[in-house]
Design goal:
The protein is an all-alpha fold and about 25 residues long. It has one helix and no strands.
Length: about 25
C-alpha cells in the first residue's frame, strides 16, 4: 500500500516537495 502510494505520488510529490525542500535547505 505504501509503495503503491509513494510510486503514484512520487512524480507529484517529487516536484512539490523538491522545490520547497531545496528552497528551505538552501535558505
Amino acid at each position: 500500500m505504501i509503495r503503491g502510494k509513494v510510486w503514484k505520488f512520487g512524480d507529484n510529490v517529487d516536484t512539490d516537495q523538491i522545490i520547497p525542500a531545496e528552497y528551505l535547505l538552501t535558505g
